[in-house]
Design brief:
- It is a single chain.
- Helix content is 42%, strand content 8%.
- With 192 residues, the chain is mainly alpha-helical.
- The strands form three sheets. The chain has a two-stranded antiparallel ribbon with strand order 1-6. The protein has a two-stranded antiparallel sheet with strand order 2-3.
- A hairpin with a 5-residue loop joins strand 2 and strand 3.
- Helix 2 runs antiparallel to helix 4, helix 4 runs parallel beside helix 6 and helix 5 packs across helix 6.
- It is globular, with a radius of gyration of 17 Å.
- The chain starts with 5 loop residues before the first helix and ends with a helix.
Amino acid sequence: MALRTNRELYAHVLELARRPNARPLEEYLRALWALAAPLSHRDALTLDELGALLEGALAAEAAAFGPDWREERELPWQETLRLQVVDLRELAASGELEDEQRYFGIDAPGGGRWYNFDVGSYLECGVQGAFGGWTPEENDGRVVVPGKVAVIDQAGQLVAVDPQDLQEEELVLERVTWEDFERLLWAGQSYE
């Protein structure tokens, strides 16, 4: 794979998102759990390992869901995944996942706000929200918003700028910590 930068990771995930995949997001997340758990003793992952985890969960056997999924977990990334799996199960049971307007955001019974409900949008938004990497040249449907946007400048002040002037830099990601992985999970749920 040889992933080195946030842009390469984004391109990899975009390719994964474009693959036909009928796997429900909740099942994908349980498979991601099953693949990541044996690695959790390590301090960090390489970018290639993260890419392989995200790809592997497309087809890997999912961890079984049982009563223990309602119990809190010690590791923050596992707690995040646990909450997401439970949220998606509860949203499915309530019928809210069938709402055609769900991509405008829905609140789960557990309190989490969701914007992404399929594997492709979860992965694309997760990587973009956690690491960046998107460029306007991508042919993925993401667009720069019209008008000015609010950003914090180097002096810590809130300023309005044209989003075309905000160029994301390409970052070499030598290691991905579990905190980074958890950020990816949260962004997958809530980044638009």
